[in-house]
Design goal:
- Among the domains are: 73 residues, no CATH class; 47 residues, no CATH class.
- The protein has 10 helices and 6 strands; from the N terminus they run H-E-H-H-H-E-H-E-H-E-H-H-H-E-E-H.
- Strands 3-4-2-1-5-6 form a 6-stranded parallel beta sheet, with helices on both faces.
- Strand 3, helix 6 and strand 4 form a beta-alpha-beta unit.
Length: 258
């Protein structure tokens, strides 16, 4: 019975997905999509695999996601692969995870299809990991394609703190006092020092695994974002799930805080 149902899905889903794509309004599609790739460990436990296998399955789903984003004209994607809190995991889990992430990023870079941009506190990562991420970014800086922010060692509070610190250092170098800066500082000044400076804020933020919280993802940039929470664990996230998220976004009336 299960095989029969899976066969029916393979026949019906492509037609359903094509219909969803045709009905997406071109003028209401997201320009920047943020994705919280959550649920790798729980997926592994559910299928009787070890944690590393769950992370590898999650890494394998990144390339399809980027293809789906290209298909509908998304210009920027931010992928949250590792938080600053995750860096406190036991070494037995963290070290393989870092290797899986670095391998995945390098595989994306080798295709020269996307422009990769690491965002996060790279100074908190092992030196070899940080160098691999930087090298992947440098090798794709001239690629004219989808901009992909790779959030590794990322925390929203840390990003804001880093932005304020950078701003203060910049102003001090120009000879301004704290009192002078306090008179003119505004949100634009801080935004110019975020990891994503110069990029549009995310229109749509997707979180998989059923969790309905931000957890520190793009805290500053997501002030006016639309959120979509999907029950599927990240390795099981499919094209149809992505299209449903985009459809839900397109059907909303964005109020931009009003």
């Amino acid at each position: 019975m299960a095989d029969w149902k899976q066969g029916l899905r393979r026949v019906l889903y492509p037609a359903y997905e094509a219909r969803v794509v045709r009905r997406l309004p071109a003028d209401k599609l997201p320009q920047h999509v943020g994705v919280m790739l959550d649920g790798n460990r729980r997926w592994a436990k559910a299928v009787g695999a070890d944690t590393a296998q769950g992370h590898r399955a999650g890494a394998a789903n990144i390339e399809p996601l980027l293809g789906w984003c290209e298909e509908i004209g998304v210009e920027v994607v931010t992928l949250w692969l590792l938080s600053t809190d995750n860096l406190n995991r036991p070494a037995a889990e963290l070290e393989p995870l870092l290797g899986i992430i670095a391998d995945a990023v390098e595989t994306l870079a080798e295709q020269r299809r996307w422009r990769l941009h690491p965002v996060g506190s790279l100074d908190l990562l092992p030196a070899d990991m940080a160098e691999r991420l930087k090298a992947a970014a440098e090798s794709t800086q001239d690629v004219d394609g989808l901009l992909v922010n790779i959030a590794v060692g990322y925390g929203g509070r840390r990003e804001i703190a880093d932005a304020v610190r950078s701003l203060l250092q910049e102003q001090a170098a120009q000879g301004r006092t704290i009192e002078e800066l306090a008179e003119v500082i505004d949100v634009e000044h801080i935004a110019e020092h975020l990891y994503t400076k110069g990029q549009p804020d995310p229109d749509l933020v997707i979180r998989t695994s059923g969790e309905q919280r931000l957890g520190g993802f793009l805290l500053w940039q997501s002030a006016q974002s639309e959120f979509y929470f999907c029950e599927a664990y990240w390795p099981d996230f499919r094209r149809v799930d992505f299209l449903r998220a985009v459809r839900a976004y397109a059907q909303r009336e964005r109020r931009f805080g009003s």
